[in-house]
Amino acid sequence: RSVTGIALKVGCVLGAGIFALTALFPAPIVGLFTPDPQIITAGVEYLSVIKFTYPFYILSTLMMAALRSVETVNISFGTSLMSLVVNVCINYLLIFGHFGFPELGILGASIGTLTARILEFLVVLFYIARVDRRLQLFSENPFRRSKELERDYVRVALPVVGANLLWSMATPIQTAILGRLSSDAIAANSVSTTVFQYLKVITASEASSTSVTMGRIIGSGLTEPRQLRPYVRTLQAIFLLFGFASGGSLLLLRQPLLSLYSLTPGAMELAGQLIPLMALIYVGMAYQMPIATGVIRGSGDTKFSMYLNLISTWLIVMPLSFAAAFWWSLPVFWVVFLLNFDQLFKCIPVAIRVNRYKWVHILTR
Questions:
Q1: C-alpha to C-alpha distances, 355 to 13, 78, 326, nearest whole angstrom
Q2: Strand locations in 69-143, DSSP E?
Q3: I need a surface site. Which of 154, 206, 262, 295 has the fewest CB within 10 A?
Q4: CA 218, CA 293: separation in Å to the nearest integer?
């Protein structure tokens, strides 16, 4: 409860900070992604509403993470499903103006997301306050100061935040690189990564559940790290099998997926080239992400992912991608490959690290 309280206090500060930045500097922030004036104007309009979602999203995500840590997972699924349905329905009504609702376009999309995020927050808050019997967050004051736990939290959290921050900072820069190539590149990349993002969510969920599982096993009285060997080998096999199956499915469904979109001939041809590439990239990601952030980080080694992201993303991927796009003028296919190929070569250090069993750190006192 105290650790959750610490996280919520930090989340409130971060949510307020992100809201302030997007409220004060909307045009410069959108301008980081594209120089197109029309896209910037549309982005600022979208941001005028979507900025209110950030505090709600941060707090609800933290509360659901706290529930997952005590193996209460159904509420996360139910809330996400409700949020998706509400968002899609409002988008249908307000983007296109169906059933007498005003046709608001991109503003309607932002209203749908904001409504879904507020409902998500309220449902999770109600569940924690009235239904939950495991975490019992409000059975005592969760915001009571504990210097000892705060030091523990900072020691464990800083590498995790650092790793995720390095990754999250790279994502908009990667988008900005593509955004300065051509409109066909933006459209083709958007289409090719749509299903990839759904698969990525599944992989991230695997990592999250693996983290909880590994923490429970280690915290239940593990005496020898190599006792984890059967679990680790099984998980590696599962992740690889799922990666190959999902990547293969993405490859086989390439044409049906492309038929759902209305693209220029150039964008359609490029998207047809990028989908097989994303299928290959996904196989690597399906293995290394849940191992690095689920097994290794979930077992207390929080620094490995930070160093891995720092070296792979910022010292290798970003410089090569920038050079490929603006100095070497390589085709879009190779730029996209360089932007994502860290998902493949990170498999090597992850496989070496996980099979040496030096990542088990006992965090409890």
A1: 39, 36, 39
A2: none
A3: 262
A4: 16
Q: Which of 285, 345, 295, 352 lies closest to 320 in space, CA to CA?
A: 345
> From CA 315, how far away is CA 297, in angstroms rounded?
22
Q: Which of 311, 347, 325 is nearest to 170 (CA)?
A: 311
User: In the numeric block, which tokens belong to residue 256?
Assistant: 């049906």
DSSP state letters, 48-99: HHHTTHHHHHHHHHHHHHHHHHTT--HHHHHHHHHHHHHHHHHHHHHHHTGG
Q: What is the pLDDT of residues 197-215, one digit of tens each?
A: 778 888 888 888 888 888 8
CB 114 within 8 A of CB 50: yes
Distance of CA 219 to the CA centre of its chain: 26
Residue 291 confidence (pLDDT)? 93
User: Residue for token digits 């707090």?
Assistant: 59
Q: Using an 8 Å Cβ cutoff, are 177 and 321 in contact?
A: yes
Cα–Cα distance, 87 to 294 (Å, whole number): 29
* CA dist., res. 326 & res. 342, Å (int): 20
pTM above 0.70, yes or no: yes
How far, in Å, CA of 11 to CA of 316, rounded? 31
What amino acid is encoded at 86 in this protein? Answer: V
